[in-house]
Specification:
The complex is a heterodimer of chains A (357) and B (384).
Chain A: E1 4-11, H1 23-38, E2 47-51, H2 54-57, H3 62-70, E3 76-80, H4 84-96, E4 102-110, H5 116-121, H6 136-151, H7 156-169, H8 183-188, E5 191-193, E6 196-197, E7 206-215, H9 216-220, E8 227-236, H10 252-263, E9 273-275, H11 281-290, E10 300-301, H12 316-329, E11 335-342, E12 348-356
Helix pairs in contact in A: 1-3, 4-12, 6-11, 7-11
Chain B: E1 6-12, H1 24-39, E2 48-52, H2 55-58, H3 63-71, E3 78-80, H4 87-100, E4 106-113, H5 122-127, H6 141-157, H7 161-175, H8 189-193, E5 197-199, E6 202-203, E7 213-220, E8 229-237, H9 250-268, H10 273-276, E9 279-281, H11 287-296, H12 306-310, H13 327-330, H14 334-349, E10 363-370, E11 374-381
Parallel strand pairs in B: 2-3, 2-4, 9-10
Antiparallel strand pairs in B: 1-7, 1-8, 4-7, 5-6, 8-11, 10-11
Helix pairs in contact in B: 1-3, 4-14, 7-11, 9-11
The chains are: A alpha/beta (357), B alpha/beta (384).
Chain lengths: 357, 384
Amino acid sequence: MTAVAILGATQTKHSKSRSDANYMELAFEVVTKLLEETGVKHSEIDTVITASSDFWDGRTISDIAVQDAVGAAGKSASKVSMDGAFSLVYASARISSGAFKNCLVVGHGKASEGQARKIANAAFDPHYQRPLGIDDHGALGLQARAYLQEKNLSPEMLAETAAQSAHCYAKNPYSHRTTNWTSEAIQKSQLIADPLHELEIAPDSDGACAMLLCNEKEAQKRETSSIWLDGFGFATDVHSLGDRHLGKPSILSQVSQQAFRRAGVQDYREIDIAEVHDASSAQTLMWKEDMGLQNHSHLLWNPSGGAMGAQPGFATGLVRVAEVYQRLKKGAARTGLAHGMTGFVGQAHCVWVLRRR
Amino acid sequence: MKHPVAIIGSGQTNHCSRRLDVNAPELTNEAVQAACQDADIDIDEIDALVVGNMEHFEGIHLSDLWVTEGTGGIKKPQLKVATGGTTGSSLAQAAYYLVAGGLFKNVLAVGWERLSDSEGETTTGIVTAFDPIYERPTLAGAVSGLAILACQYQQQYHTTPEEAAEVVVQARKNAQLNPHAHLTKEVTIEEVVSSPMLSSPIRYLDMCPTSDGACALLFTSDPKKRNCAWVKGVSSCHNHTYLGDVVNGAADFKQTLTIAAQNAYQQAGIKDPRKEFDVVEMYDPCTWSAFAWSEALGLADPGKGSTIWTSGASKLDGELPINPSGGVLCTNPIGATGLIRVAEASLQIRKKAGDRQVKDPKLALTTGFGGSFWNEVMILGENR
């Protein structure tokens, strides 16, 4: 892959319900803001990749619904029906091929317009698992229990971890959840899927995120240092819940190693900041271990609060990349890691390594 | 910077109305096994996959994650690209860019659709592509949009239903030579123009079917000594979300394909498409669209598209064979259909098209079509 830089990234303030806007308008909001911030005009954007889910949008070919909002009409564009972090792979490929000098990537999710648990249920094996009524929360509960047993940890650990996330997302102006919950309050929140309480599970949010990528030549036209997408890794694991041990290391281990290798990361301590999509506080712990970062004492871990603060569907992973990008740009760190997932309890993972140069 | 991209393997199931004997992972597995065998490659050598399927039609959310076990994608990088009718061609494009960009060497594109016992249904699904407040109550699925195209084309150029019928008559004849084709029964012009009206002027036999089927196509930057087809040009264009924005009749319908074609022709160095292409695999969801597309592609003057078929030039032994596979009119597993166009064209270039082989083709033109006038063009050639 040739050098690909991020020119800019924007996100909405995520929330439980954006009753003032449909999802096209959410996409339009972030794209408009992005063009303003970067000074790039619509006509200068060569190609667009969107991330959207037909089921979530209740709209088949969901990318068509947002094409006007993202300015894809008349252009070569495509879509990845997965979390936005995966869309960045396709976007990078389009730029690396030399066919396009830049690429706009937009992801959105409007959970308030759908029945989240019912939609999640429709992703399970249609013959054997869906009839059980299992959904993403149930699967997260199974995973959390398997993890606690595997590591011989008490459920209080989940609450403490969720409280650490709350401490961060309470400071994040874009976050859906805004309260600095204590672990006591978290343990008192409604039990959703044993052992997980409501505040130990990421919320269903409305939100969008837009990002503009460009090739080396375009990046060098800017006077400031750039943030580069230096390496990626992604892979899909087995589908059926019974076919993988939910408490043991996931395919994220393999995926993060691939990203490190591609980015030339020799030692995990080079990573200054990491943003992961943690759909539960068990995952906040698990993903860190899967990537071999648990002993990294000065790692800035999910400073935004992660997905525990906001989970706007397929925009969630893209928001992680945006959060790392913003912090690298401010000079808070030099090397960052961003993570996204698709599929319940993380069947598919995608990791990006970003650097400021 | 750009890696050259070749197609080295192609696999399809035998498309039909109902594959009740397999589920989706098993269906895609058939096509993947066939493609790997054709390419003489082990599944372990596949570096990444792009898969596509319309989950809404099937009523299976994240269907890509379910079929992983069938596609050989477990523990591998796999992306899902689903763009409606263009899904298959979008898959081909995604695979192309992943290889051309140097991200992966061997990329397998897999498209499929299996609607026979799903909870979804094509038209029910497609209806949701339309704006829920302004358009959905009045527009019905894919047929309605195409009927508007056909109506405007007919009004502008006075092409007759008999001329349109010629397209499917020839398609069915070609399909008889294709072991993968779904509809192979011969039809006469009489039968076509007297078949039940779906949405004027499109009659039942003017319209493509929906099929159960899968297609797998292997793209690589390192074909070694294999018999392969090279990708010479890739482009895509789409515009109107709302049908009401179509105000210039047939010209509006042809606009995005014209733009995409010109872009691809420039990349491949094509100056006279009618003369230079030896075979065309075109995405013809209905008979009438074939005329509009052939004009947008520069294969005929405006209003004269029908002459390619009525003159016999489009026949297998004609001057410009079109859809030797039988095209979309005979076979339409939606997630695969656009990919099948590229697969069939690659078989033609590689001289592996069996009884439907066109004589010595050097350059092949393929198109994909879908919602919002989405048109995708990919050109294949025998030389790098």
